[in-house]
Amino acid sequence: MFNLIGNIISGFFVGLIARALYWGNNDMGFWMTSLLGVGGALIAGTLASLSNGQGIREGFNRAGCISSIVGAMVLIFIGNRMGWHL
């Protein structure tokens, strides 16, 4: 339970930083910002585990905060290109 709460809180801060660094209007609420940060961390963690030669199901590799922010910024970019206006 505490792990889930910790992921939501850290995801919020990662999403908040990603929104601040990304250009343009990014009006989101608490939950969308948190999901953005958690999604960015999942993208960065998946890419890190694939680059290490591990499969996705062979364990979770925690990515750094900077790569999570970059992953969240990629999600904002993809969302804006698809017309979601994240």
Q: Helices and strands in order, then pairings?
A:
Blueprint: H1 2-21, H2 30-51, H3 65-81
Secondary structural class: mainly alpha
Shape: globular
How many β-strand runs? 0
Query: Total helix count?
Result: 3
Which percent range describes the beta-strand content? under 5%
Number of domains: 1
Which consecutive residue ranges, at least 5 long each, have pLDDT under 50?
57-61
Report the oligomer: single chain
| H-E order | HHH
Query: Roughly what is the average pLDDT, rounded to an integer?
Result: 76
Helix content: 55-70%
Largest sheet: none
Give the CA-CA distance, first to last residue: 28 Å
What is the alpha-carbon Rg in Å? 13 Å
Task: Give your account of this protein's structure.
With 86 residues, the chain is mainly alpha-helical. The chain has one domain (2-19, 30-81). It has three helices and no strands. The N and C termini lie far apart (28 Å). The relative contact order is 0.19. Mean pLDDT is 76; it is low at 57-61.
